[in-house]
Write a structure and sequence with these properties.
heterodimer, A: 398 residues, alpha/beta, Rossmann fold, Ubiquitin-like (UB roll), de novo design (two linked rop proteins), 3 domains, four-stranded parallel β-sheet, 9 strands, globular, B: 638 residues, 4 domains, five-stranded mixed β-sheet, 21 helices
Chain lengths: 398, 638
Amino acid sequence: MENKKREGSVIFSPYNRGEAIKKVVTISREDVLFEIRESKLKGRGGAGFPTATKWTLVSAAISDEKYVVCNADEGEPGTFKDRVLLLEYPELIFDGMVVAGYTIGAKKGIVYLRGEYEYMLKSLEDYLESMRKDNLLGKNICGKDGFDFDISIRLGSGAYVCGEETALIESLEGQRGEARNRPPYPVNTGYLGKPTTVNNVETFAAVSHIITKGGSWFAKFGTDKSTGAKLFSVSGDCEKPGVYELPWGTSINELLEIVGAKNTKAVQVGGASGICIPKNQFDRKLGYEDAPTGGSIIIFNESRNMLHVLKNFMEFFVEESCGQCTPCRIGNVKLLEGVEMIENSNFTFNYLNHLKELGKTMQVASKCGLGQSSPNAFLSIIENFKDEIFNNGGKNGK
Amino acid sequence: MESKSNLRSPVSQQAHVIEKPKDITTIGGTVTIEINEKKVSVPFGTTILEACKMNGISVPTLCHHEDLCVAGVCRICVVEVEGMRTLQASCAFPITNPIKIKTSSPMVRKARRHIIDLLLSEHYGECYSCFRNGKCELQNLAKEYGVDTYTFGHVTEPRYEVDNSSYSVIRDMSKCVLCKRCVRTCIDLQEVGVLEAVNRGHETMISTFLDKPLLDVICINCGQCINRCPTAALRANDPSDEIWAAIDDPNKHVVIQTAPSPRAAICEEFGMEAGHSLTKELNTALRRIGFDKVFDTNTTADLTIFEEGTELLLRLYKALVKKEEVALPQFTSCSPGWVKFLEHYYPEYIDNLSSAKSPQQMFGALIKTFYAQKVGIDPANIVSVAVMPCSAKKYECNRPEMNSSGYKDVDYGLTTRELARMIKEAGINLPEMPKSDFDSPFGEASGAGLIFGATGGVMEAAIRSVYEFITGNKTEDAFENANVTPVRGFEGIRYVEIPLGDKFGPVPDILKHLIPNWDWLKGVTLKVAIAHGTANAKKIMDDIKAGGKFSECHFIEFMACPGGCLGGGGQPIPTTPEIRKKRAQAIYAEDESLEMRKSHDNPNVIRLYEEFLTDGPCGHTSHKLLHTHYTKRGRYIV
């Protein structure tokens, strides 16, 4: 049974539409940045970059045009918490975007909506229209002279890589979805070459709460390095999959208990690009300092074949690599071939070691986060489940 | 060549170039960094790659090219930057703060080796059966990094079919390393844009519109992509087997014409520094290979000046005196890449193209008529070869209209690279050849014909003659040593005004029947412009469309390739701004060394008008043999 209860003390805590906007126009940009800094909010998309730092950089950048981009491309396998926010809590997201626009001095916000979420487009557009009517968008928002901001929605076309912020910007500009060289970063040279902040859906939602309730309130939740609470998209072998709000620092064991998972063998934290945690490490805590995730939690019980799990992930990366840089384009193919070799008991450990080294090269030499994280699954599953993978009654391996 | 702001170019592959300070002595003008624990100062915004080069540290590159915007995709140039989690592509990393760089740490070396291994695993073919053998950048990298085994395997079957539909450019995508230099060349450098990456991940490939054969898309055949391809994925359509067969056939009379640019660049194929003309050595080599006659394309370049210059004067006469509707400015037509670019992108302007054929095609028509008659050989048995710096010349000689002799006027266009290989195959070391002259009846030619090879050369040659025709004065009176320096240089677009004054000479005999006097040119300032690289041509054309200053020009020289013919798509690989500069120096030096510097002084051409083209420039015979027409192609090929 899918978990439909929206319980939680931070993201799912009570919030009134427009509240953050009404509050923000009464305080200065510096005060907004102060609150965000106090909250120690880190990016909810997975990379965990401090939001205050990003916004400070964009607001300091000198330009006549700046942009706020909401990354709603939610494409990481096993992630679906943004869907819940977009469908049930649009006020949190859009209000957060308006706050961002106010803070950095942008007049335009763009939601990059995952192509598969096209069905939400109408209701989101309607919602934006109602915001315009209530002067929560448009000119002189909430009576604040000169504060103009509006939001438009653009649809993605199904490429996973467009969740990477620079590829997303390329896509917005009508180009092939391919990551850019960095530096310079989008905070200086973003959409149309202008300073741009790209934040995750959930980050904006968190901002709305932080503005209304205060940065120090937010920082009370979670751990020292991972403040606040996080939405987790839980799927796989458990009784109650769904979206859960839990404070950072929750251990995997605790999470498994909450979602009713039994006989769990492994938990994939952070989606396909994340890491696979075996049973003996279930006391690890979810958070940027230990087991980070953009929200994806995939649970595997004893019946699962981890090599198949790995193969599935690798097939995903081979398919979703944008193809521009060598390590990612060809490296993932080699890793997948390696998995198939193991599957067919047609490999040498020597070659496998080559592949592990290759995986490490991909982590450091790929152009963007996709290629840098795609070997994670390979390296962690091969390492953590070697007994299962290689000691299959002597059937696997040579 | 400065088209980085164009919207059509792939932004992801443009360097988000950080403007370097004009004066590096200002505060913040330089940054002190550490490369391999050595402190050095570099201008703010310098890339790591540039900084390394400036300090004599070699960093391997593959997708990087000096002529092109940054891509940062091959990752071979990665280096370690202290404090950064990942390795950084040195070609794409602008230095703005005092970083510490390691260019050869264990992690860096391992990553580079992996990248080479990965590329090799997908790169179809064996080096010894590849035309780039010894000149392949991937092969060089493999050598440099001591690759002695295919760690991650090696493909045994080609992945893609070879596209040899084009007369000019052959695409063998099984050898492509996806550096996208060709894409950046086609889109950014040339603004033609027939090549782009399609599909994703491992399925990514460089493709044309709807994956059509190159012949069926609006490729202008300039071959600039070939010059920048690091492997053999792109190459010119090589006719050398057919040429060998003709040479070996005792019934065939094989003649060859050599253009000035190959002569100024072929030395590079023989291990010499760029910038040495081997014109006369080449004559000997060609005879030893077995060509029956060796002619100088400059002869018909001189002829082109007569025809195209007369055409221009006639257009001006019609416009200014007879008040007829005439297409002006007149555009040069000797660059077949430019001609096709105009036919596709600006078909409404084809009347502006000079109807004069290019020197190559004029020569072709004369060889199988005038020459054939003179030596008494059946033109059917003549095989006419042209050594050109150009891949588009291959297309040009295959245009259906290029058969005014009754035969295919030029049978084969051969590139500099292909000729160099033929010479090597014949066991000849070109630089050591004794010197010899061209064959008559087209022996000597002028320096004006020679400089056709450099951007601005056609314009300069035209000015040297037209100025004298009109004013009756020596060009030297207006331009020191007849060097029309205002039209020279490598700036993408140049605009020059030449006041004609009001003292005119008599109309030369050869033009008398067309134009009675020059009085109508009183007070006229000749306005000319020069563009090289089709991206620059596009700028001028758009200006003309908008009625800008270029629409008031009288004559504009367009060359499809950056640098003009000397940077052509058939020239030795690699090409860089530096190399092109040296080739230009070689051409201008050879011009200066000649006695005869002006086309109208060429006695062979004058004799041609006396003996053969008796109705003069733009007369009936010349129209039949030396002029052509063009096709409004448009952007869509049905």
